Amino acid sequence: MIICILNRRLDPLVVFVLLLAAKTAEGQSFHLGTCPKPSVQEDFNVTKYMGTWYEIEKLPAAFERGECVQATYSRLPDGMVKVYNEELLPDGKINSIEGVAEVKDPSQPAILSVSFFKGSPYWVLSTDYKSYSLVYSCSDYLSLFHIDFAWILARTRVLSEDFVNQLRGKLEAAGVNIKQLTVTNQTDCEE
Question: Which of 81, 98, 99, 150 could be stapled to 116 by a disulfide with Cβ–Cβ 3.0 to 4.6 Å?
Answer without folding.
Answer: 99
